[in-house]
Design goal:
Alpha-Beta Plaits, two-stranded antiparallel ribbon, 9 helices, 14% strand
Length: 243
């Protein structure tokens, strides 16, 4: 293998990564690819390149010195870079309070996963809004309101582990699932009944649910689910809004 050529390729990768950050773009693999292709003209999966290079260097590290020592140093640098990438993804895409996905991540996931596969795969979207959350803040203060949100977020994370769960803002949450809408409705109905108790009172929330179709953008799907959520405020049930 031409290690010098591989080294140059890796440097190009790092340059592309840093340029993406400098331009204020989220460092997702698709973004890596775009910057990398622009610089090199080679459509490579950058994250895979980093991983493969690291694994290769680990093998080289078993060779006699001084090659092994150099390889070990490079492995440490790559592992440090991976931690930085993971940290940046957390900063960009996770909600600071609940550690659920944030609205930025929701937009990216919908546009790059759901919308691209909506013709061949089934997705449904649920919009959740806590009932009486303002009263919690007004009665016990905002710090207690934050604890309330964390308890509910942990509940969603545990009960919808196979789905994409995000905090949309305030006391609003969005769940996207790749399963039949009836099955997801059953899961949501169970969640309504089994919601955790906070300060001696069960957490209550309204929920609207809708299927995602190929013509949808995030706004149109959210709009339908939002309509169902307001109906749910009146009925106390999970409301399905048809396309």
């Amino acid at each position: 293998m031409d290690f010098q050529a591989e080294r140059k390729k890796l440097l190009r990768c790092l340059e592309a990564f840093l340029k993406a950050l400098k331009n204020g773009e989220i460092p997702y693999p698709e973004v890596y690819r775009r910057y990398y292709v622009s610089a090199v003209g080679d459509d490579s999966e950058i994250v895979f390149l980093l991983s493969e290079t690291r694994d290769l260097l680990k093998e080289v590290a078993s060779l006699p010195l001084p090659i092994a020592e150099t390889a070990r140093t490079q492995v440490e640098k790559l592992e440090s870079l991976q931690k930085q990438i993971d940290f940046l993804n957390e900063q960009f895409l996770k909600d600071d309070l609940t550690l659920l996905w944030n609205r930025r991540a929701l937009t990216y996931y919908f546009n790059n996963e759901v919308k691209k596969k909506a013709i061949e795969c089934f997705y449904c979207l649920a919009f959740l809004d806590l009932n009486g959350f303002k009263k919690v803040n007004d009665t016990f203060g905002h710090l207690e309101g934050d604890r309330f949100l964390k308890v509910f977020a942990d509940f969603l994370r545990e009960n919808f582990a196979d789905d994409f769960v995000s905090r949309y803002g305030g006391d609003e949450f969005v769940i996207i699932s790749a399963q039949p809408i009836q099955k997801q409705k059953e899961k949501l109905c169970f969640a309504v009944e089994s919601a955790p108790v906070y300060r001696g009172k069960k957490i209550s929330f309204a929920c609207g649910l809708t299927a995602v179709v190929a013509k949808d953008d995030l706004y149109s799907a959210l709009s339908r689910a939002d309509t169902g959520m307001y109906q749910s405020k009146e009925t106390g049930k999970v409301e399905v809004v048809r396309v």
